[in-house]
Known about the structure:
The complex is a heterodimer. By secondary structure, chain A is mostly beta strands. Chain A has strands spanning 4-5, 10-14, 19-25, 32-38, 45-51, 56-59, 62-67, 72-77, 86-93, 105-106, 110-115. In chain A, the strands form two sheets. In chain A, strands 2, 4, 5, 9, 10 and 11 form a six-stranded mixed beta sheet that branches. Chain A has a five-stranded antiparallel beta sheet with strand order 1-3-8-7-6, with no helix packed on it. The radius of gyration of chain A is 14 Å and the shape is globular. The termini of chain A are far apart. Chain B has no helices and eleven strands. In chain B, strands 2, 4, 5, 6, 9, 10 and 11 form a seven-stranded mixed beta sheet that branches. In chain B, strands 1-3-8-7 form a four-stranded antiparallel beta sheet, with no helix packed on it.
Amino acid sequence: DQQVKQNSPSLSVQEGRISILNCDYTNSMFDYFLWYKKYPAEGPTFLISISSIKDKNEDGRFTVFLNKSAKHLSLHIVPSQPGDSAVYFCAASYFDRGSTLGRLYFGRGTQLTVWP
Amino acid sequence: DTGVSQDPRHKITKRGQNVTFRCDPISEHNRLYWYRQTLGQGPEFLTYFQNEAQLEKSRLLSDRFSAERPKGSFSTLEIQRTEQGDSAMYLCASSSRGTGATNEKLFFGSGTQLSVL
């Protein structure tokens, strides 16, 4: 059962515009959320994260928004650049004495294409 | 920081053969993870080591899979009697979450792509 869902397999955005990638989750125990970026033939690279006690975290061109009541988070990239073209994975984890915070639950990913 | 290193990058094997992958984590990281990614899916957790102790295993890790981290540094993942369903990208990640930290950031290697014919 997919606990983290990315319902848009692809997104195409013009350079300079905003890219908005969405993610929904079902497990209310999740308290830490991350976005990873993946280029072909490489492993996922950490991009930005947010704790459940916050509703926004910003790092340069990247901002993550968390809406706990809707169990929804989004990643905003502005302005988008061609180098941002990659697969973006949403991931989540929670603290559990029987588990590790490094046990991440990933969505299926969204392929972002930024065209000039 | 030389990153997480995985070897080999690609492995093609025949069904029924055994394969072994190696992961060298970032040197100061005490936590090491194995994930598996199949086509069209996100990475899925397989197992986790803290130093040399294997502390958690997913139900995805069948009896044919075994992972070790003998000296708390590099790790190996062995798959015995491979099946076509084992074809996937096997990803290793490491981290150094401190005591009391409430979050953890994983650094992934480039993965080993396994194809079972």
